[in-house]
Each structure stands twice: as C-alpha cells, then as structure tokens.
C-alpha cells in the first residue's frame, strides 16, 4: 500500500488549499507530479487510485488526465529519463545526431530502457530551449548545448551516481 | 533600436532577488497603482496600445474591459506561462532572471481587475522556474506586496504557481483553464468567453507573461509615454527569442522599429549566420507562422524594407508575408532542408493535437505521414497537392487555433518551396544524400515598375 510521507502529505494539503473549497480537483496535476516523483517515476493504477482518494474524485478522472499529459508516464521508465527534443529548432542544430548517438551508445531504441534499468530514451517535442539547442530534459533540469562528448560525460556521471 | 524596458536591469547582478529589484526602482509602479482607481489602471493599459505578447496580438486593455463583474462572484487573473510554441523561450528568460517584474505586474493587474487569487500556469518542463517564482512570491509577501490588506489598501491578493505537465494545447486560454481545473486540456467552445465564464465558471482574464510584465513600465511611465516606443499599432518593446542558424541565439528586447535585415546581421542581435553561410528562410514568430524565403524576408513583395513589427511582418498577407506571432525567431541557413524541417513541425502539431476536433486530430497525423514519406524519398507528386488539400480543410474548422497553427507551416512551405518538395519526389535517392540547398530562394524578386 503506497502512501505519501507525513511531510509530503502536508505539502499535498497546502496545494489543495490554493484552490477554492470544492475545487480540489484543480490540485490533480501538481499532486500527480508528486506521486510520480515519490512512487517510482511512473503512475500505475494503484497510485492513481490513491490520488483519486486524496482528492475525493473518481479514479477515471485521474486516468484521463494522466494519459493526456506527456510528462506523466503510465508505463515503467528507467531511473534516468533522457528526453531529447527533436522539434524544428533543435533539429536545425543536430538533435537527430544526438538521438542516434544515445541509441548507439546505450544500445536501445526510442522509448526503450537499458537492461540495467538505468536509462530510458524518450524523444520529446519542443521543450522551450530552442536557443540552447540541442538539448534534453533530465528530471527537473535541462541539459543544453549538447554534444556527443557532453552526452558521454553525463551518462558516466549518472552511472556513477546510481552506484553510490 | 534596442529597447531597454523589460530588460533594462538585465546587467544587474542579483536582480532576481527582491532587495536588488526594489533598490533599482522595483515595486514603484505597484506603489503608484495601488493609489489609483482600478478603472484608471485599465485606462492606462488601453492608452499604451499594449497587445497580447503570447502570439495573437489582441489589445490587452480591451481584453480587460470585457471582464464581467457580477456582484458576489470572484474574478480571477491567470498568467499564461505555458510557453510552448517551437522557437519561443522569451517568457522563460523573463521568469528565470526577472521574476519580480512579473510578480509586480501580476499584483498591479490583479488589483486593477479585482482578482484576489491569481494563478501562474507554467509549463511542466520549466520545473526549476517554479522554485524561482515561488521564492520571489515569498519575498514579495514578506515585504507586504501580497497577502492580506496590501500596503494598507484593504486589497487582498495571493499568487499561486500551478505547474502543467507537458501539453502545448494548454497555451490556448480555454484549454489552460480546463487544465487548471484538473482536467484534460481540451479547449472550450466560445462563447462564453473566459471574461464571462472562465476558471470555475467565474469571470477570468488570461494574459501572457510578457504582457503582464509590460504593465509595470506602462504604469511607471504612463500609457501615453509607453505608446511612443515603437511604431504605429506596434507600441512598446517586444521580446524576441532567436534560435536556429545564427551566431548569437538568445533573447533580445527591441522597440519594433528596426529592420529584419539589421536584426539578423547586426552584432547587437543575431550576429549573422555562422560559418559565412547564406540565409535560406526564416520563421519570425514561432513555428506556426508562415515560413518565408530569404527574398521575402528583408523586403516585402512591393520592394519595401521589412521591419520587426506586427504590421510590416504581415505585409502581403500569407501570400508573401508572415506574422510577428510569439516572437520565436527561427533562422534557417542554406544547408537546411525545408521538407525535413516542415516534417518536424507537422510531427509536433500531431503530437500536441488534443484530439477533440477530427480535422485536427486526423489531419495533423495524415500530414505528418505524408511529409515523412516525401522526406524519406517515398513520396509521390500527388502527395504535394494532397498536403495542400488537407491543410486547407483543417484551417478554420476546429474549436481552437491549433488547427490553424498546424496548417499554416505546411501551407507556407508548399507555397514558397514547392520546387524543393518536387525535387524530393523526383530525386528520392539523391535527396537522402544531400539537401536541395539555397536554390533561388535568396534571388531578388522582380518588382514591377508600377508598384
């Protein structure tokens, strides 16, 4: 049985209080972000049901939102999700080469996770970093001006981080 | 000319923080506004000629004056920080480095409109900026600019940051409202407009980040003075985010009187094109506005200089002009493939279609597949006509403008670069090895003597 920690529950209620009484459903997206962060990087049915229970809404209201927004993962993903932008402006600056390089380096295809469960490659559409292309989103941060060397360094760092 | 309005303190270290911002004139506009009548603030914004900076360019003062004020019903101001139009990252810059000008603009606007609970809807990917904004809100609150009875006026206002989760469609104001209510981002039918029934069916104004930040200089200098910056109906300053093949990508503030040529080649702005390459095409206002070839960018079809403002960029309509849009300025050099670039945009709009209206849901996917075929050397000549036909049937036939936004880039690419598409179809193998190149796209256009 999953459950937010006391501290996180406090945050959940703080978020709910931002909206008028009876409009607690407005807190759904912010709370789904918290659930995804806390419960393994993706949203399974029990997690979504738990969020529905907190917000006193029907589970289907959570499912339909979780499946609409691209930041919510409804399938398991690796520990590190590499979301490489490939829309126009990034493409002009070589994002296709970066995606190909990651595929080759990690020996996975788009949308796949490495056998060790560390990395998932997910091509993304415009993330708002067009002037600093090519780029990827990694968790809550952007990695910009990517080169093959930067990808090497990043992956080595993440591998080392995962060991500790 | 470079305008120093929103980014006038860009060079000051620590301007992100309240104390520094305040020391450099921050919250003086708020002090002034809180002593004004609410209707007078709206009047100043009207006089300023400020137009919505999100892309549509609708007059802000007029939008504010539509807000219904029924007794006993709360009203809301919502800041649209869902910046997602490919090529656009100006709001990000403003929020990341100048959060207090947005908070001050939000406070003044909330006061003018009577919003006691104001929300910033920010795209989910800008996660770290949520922290920056919340920190700025805390600072402003501690200094007495937010909360209860602000500066003894009796006005209460809270600002909350609400994070989205990755959906371009939520930049459309009614989809944003749906999303803020905890639902899928499906745009609503209008009417009723948000000004009458918006967030939780209450009267709501939704404005872009840059628009709301611009309220600060408008109050500081007065609407009439602000309107003197710029030209014609393109008043004030505009932030532009530059990307693609330029030497100096980034965010620039201009006063809308400079020429497009100067903007691209001056060292003050884009700094020209890297490696001495020549310009092939440009999308000056975010991915949904028409792409224009080099020979229609610096001069209009009439042979007049084209300037960086709403009117000049759209001179010639869609036949030979484009749009100011969101200010997402995308530059393509001679080595870029228009077919491939258009394909990535078609894929983007297909990915971002909410699926509610069939012309957009089906049409965007169909266009993407056809473009992928042509790009991959598997296209037929009839595909080009088919693409034209599909985009024409999407445009104007959807609830929200995403359909138009998806149709226009495809239409403009075929309109101006049809021979590049034909070359791909006729040379399927060669097109996989090399790009079409600059061809004739920078050749001067013959202007009839009578024009």
Automatic annotation (TrEMBL), chain A:
GO terms for molecular function: 2 iron, 2 sulfur cluster binding; active transmembrane transporter activity; inorganic cation transmembrane transporter activity; metal ion binding; monoatomic cation transmembrane transporter activity; NADH dehydrogenase activity. InterPro entries: NuoE-like, NuoE_dom, NuoE_N, Thioredoxin-like_sf. GO terms for cellular component: catalytic complex; membrane protein complex; organelle envelope; organelle membrane. [2Fe-2S] cluster binds at residues 85, 90, 126, 130. It comes from the Bacteria. Binds 1 [2Fe-2S] cluster. Gene3D superfamilies: Glutaredoxin, NADH-quinone oxidoreductase subunit E. One of its GO terms (biological process) is inorganic cation transmembrane transport. Its cofactor is [2Fe-2S] cluster. PANTHER family: NADH DEHYDROGENASE [UBIQUINONE] FLAVOPROTEIN 2, MITOCHONDRIAL (PTHR10371:SF3), NADH DEHYDROGENASE UBIQUINONE FLAVOPROTEIN 2, MITOCHONDRIAL (PTHR10371). This is NAD(P)H-dependent oxidoreductase subunit E.
From TrEMBL, chain B:
SMART domains: NADH_4Fe-4S. One of its GO terms (molecular function) is metal ion binding. Its cofactor is FMN; [4Fe-4S] cluster. It comes from the Bacteria. NCBIfam families: nuoF_fam, PRK13596.1. Belongs to the complex I 51 kDa subunit family. This is NADH-quinone oxidoreductase subunit F. It comes from Flavipsychrobacter stenotrophus.
């Amino acid at each position: 049985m999953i459950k937010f920690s006391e501290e996180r529950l406090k945050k959940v209620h703080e978020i709910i209080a931002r909206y008028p009484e009876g409009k607690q459903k407005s807190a759904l997206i912010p709370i789904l972000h918290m659930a995804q962060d806390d419960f393994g990087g993706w949203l399974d049915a029990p997690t979504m049901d738990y969020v529905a229970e907190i917000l006193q809404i029907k589970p289907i209201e959570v499912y339909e939102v979780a499946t609409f927004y691209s930041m919510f993962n409804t399938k398991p993903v690796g520990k590190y999700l590499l979301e490489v932008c490939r829309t126009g402006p990034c493409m002009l600056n070589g994002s296709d080469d970066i995606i190909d390089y990651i595929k080759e380096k990690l020996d996975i295809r788009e949308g796949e996770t490495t056998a060790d469960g560390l990395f998932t490659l997910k091509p993304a559409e415009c993330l708002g970093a067009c002037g600093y292309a090519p780029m990827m989103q990694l968790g809550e941060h952007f990695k910009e001006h990517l080169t093959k060397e930067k990808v090497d360094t990043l992956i080595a760092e993440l591998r080392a981080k995962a060991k500790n | 000319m470079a305008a120093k309005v929103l980014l006038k303190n860009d060079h000051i270290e620590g301007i992100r923080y309240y104390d520094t911002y305040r020391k450099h004139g921050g919250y003086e506009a708020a002090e002034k506004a809180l002593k004004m009548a609410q209707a007078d603030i709206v009047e100043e914004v009207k006089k300023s000629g400020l137009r919505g900076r999100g892309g549509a360019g609708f007059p802000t003062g007029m939008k504010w004056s539509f807000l219904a004020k029924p007794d006993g019903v709360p009203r809301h101001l919502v800041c649209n920080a869902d910046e997602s139009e490919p090529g656009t990252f100006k709001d990000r810059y403003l929020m990341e480095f100048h959060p207090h000008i947005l908070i001050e603009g939000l406070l003044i606007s909330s006061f003018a409109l009577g919003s006691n609970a104001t929300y910033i809807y920010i795209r989910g990917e800008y996660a770290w900026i949520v922290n920056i904004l919340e920190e700025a809100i805390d600072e402003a609150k501690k200094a007495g600019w937010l909360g209860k009875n602000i500066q003894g006026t009796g006005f209460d206002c809270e600002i909350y940051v609400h994070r989205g989760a990755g959906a371009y469609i939520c930049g459309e104001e009614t989809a944003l409202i749906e999303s803020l209510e905890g639902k899928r981002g499906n745009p609503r039918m209008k009417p009723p407009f948000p000004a009458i029934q918006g967030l939780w069916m209450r009267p709501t104004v939704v404005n872009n980040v840059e628009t709301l930040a611009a309220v600060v200089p408008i109050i500081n200098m007065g609407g009439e003075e602000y309107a003197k910056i710029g030209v014609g109906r393109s008043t004030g300053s505009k932030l532009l985010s530059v990307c693609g093949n330029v030497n100096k990508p980034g965010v620039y503030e201009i006063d809308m009187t400079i020429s497009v040529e100067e903007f691209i080649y001056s060292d003050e702005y884009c700094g020209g094109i890297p490696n001495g390459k020549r310009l092939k095409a440009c999308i000056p206002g975010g991915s949904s506005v028409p792409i224009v070839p080099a020979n229609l960018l610096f001069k209009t079809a009439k042979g007049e200089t084209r300037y960086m403002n709403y009117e000049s960029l759209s001179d010639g309509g869609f036949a030979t002009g484009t749009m100011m849009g969101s200010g997402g300025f995308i530059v393509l050099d001679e080595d870029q493939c228009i077919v491939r670039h258009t394909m990535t945009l078609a894929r983007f709009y297909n990915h971002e279609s909410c699926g509610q209206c069939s012309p957009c849901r089906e049409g965007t996917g169909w266009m993407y597949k056809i473009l992928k075929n042509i790009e991959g050397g598997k296209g037929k000549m009839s595909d080009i006509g088919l693409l034209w036909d599909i985009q024409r049937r999407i445009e104007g036939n959807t609830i929200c403008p995403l359909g138009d936004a998806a149709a226009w880039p495809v239409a403009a690419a075929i309109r101006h670069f049809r021979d590049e598409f034909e070359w791909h179809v006729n040379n399927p193998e060669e097109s996989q090895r090399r790009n079409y190149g600059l061809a004739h796209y920078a050749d001067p256009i013959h202007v009839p003597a009578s024009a």
